[in-house]
Amino acid sequence: MNRYVLDASALLAFVYDEAGAGRVETVLQSGALTSTVNWAESVSRMTDRGQPVDEAVNRLRSLILESGTIELVPFTESHAREAARLRPRTRHLGLSLADRACLALGRLHRLPVLTTDRAWRSLRISVKIEVIR
């Protein structure tokens, strides 16, 4: 099976059992990747919903381990450069640094990315994007 890169919205859909969670679970079974920037975004959003940081991290790790694995990929200078290269082509959609970190990771590893963000469908970049809801 193919490996995928998960953005924060895909991780959160999985955590909160929202539409698309089953697709994320399937991807995790083969082992997925996510940027440390997207991991931070996911944990931050969980804290917005009232969970303390350590509890959010433990919950996220626990849920992922029940389904499969995820590799946390550090956001390096090469990732930063790639995210910056994506800025002009994604600015019109208002993509965040976390969004571009996800896309940069997919681009550099030549892997498709999973997101819940429907606006990504209109992107014309050299990354396969699968919108899961």
Task: Please provide a written account of the structure.
The protein has 133 residues and is of the alpha/beta class. It has one domain: 5'-nuclease (Rossmann fold). Helices cover 55% and strands 12% of the residues. The chain has six helices and five strands. The protein has helices at 8-15, 21-30, 36-48, 53-67, 77-90, 97-109, and strands at 5-6, 32-35, 70-73, 113-115, 129-131. Helix 1 (8-15) packs across helix 3, helix 3 (36-48) packs across helix 4 (53-67) and helix 5 (77-90) crosses helix 6 (97-109). The longest helix has 15 residues, at 53-67.
CATH secondary-structure class: Alpha Beta
Average predicted confidence as pLDDT: 96
Order of helices and strands: EHHEHHEHHEE
| Major beta-sheet overview | 3 strands, parallel
How many domain modules?
A: 1
Number of discrete helical segments: 6
Write the layout of secondary structure elements.
Elements: E1 5-6, H1 8-15, H2 21-30, E2 32-35, H3 36-48, H4 53-67, E3 70-73, H5 77-90, H6 97-109, E4 113-115, E5 129-131
Parallel strand pairs: 1-4, 2-3, 4-5
Q: Care to give the gist of this entry?
A:
With 133 residues, this protein is an alpha/beta fold. The protein is built from six helices and five strands, in the order E-H-H-E-H-H-E-H-H-E-E.
Identify the notable features of this structure and list them briefly.
133 residues; alpha/beta; Rossmann fold; three-stranded parallel beta sheet
